[in-house]
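My current task is to audit a protein record that another person submitted. I have pasted the whole thing underneath without changing anything:
***
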Amino acid sequence: MYMLKKSLTGTRGVLVATALAVSLVPAAEAQSQQAKDKTAATTGKAPVTAAPVRYKPDRFAGRAWRYYQLVWGIDALSVRLVESGEVVRFTYRVLDPDKAKALNDKNNEPSLIDPRAGVKLVVPRMEKIGQLRQTGTPEASKAYWMAFSNKGRPVKKGDRVDVVIGQFRAQGLVVD
């Protein structure tokens, strides 16, 4: 009898306690979920959870920003979705007007290429307005823009795109 009691408190006791604990864990999780559902139903609000961390990649790889300043005379390049994602706006600031002339030249057709989506977007041409881009003589410290049509929204936020205007090519710009 003594031997039987000792063996139950030993290995078998641990096994029985483990089996009971495993069977009680799903019940405890179900009760906590029921409590959350009850709170949401009575207050009309979902329980507060921690906000997800958003990864923001670098705008340029390496020293590309320096290249754009020295060779093309521009900086502050950005690509953003506007008009509910139907338009992609490319903006830049001119530092050296002589070097930046190629970007504002009417003869150079701009395009935005998204390798992930496999699309090449163009600047739309309106009948009464013309192209949706600025083509005047560039001035120092002024920001310029152009809008690319994103019909069907193939370009998404977070994509890396290339902007090509004549000989100018900005690679790996992140869409904001």
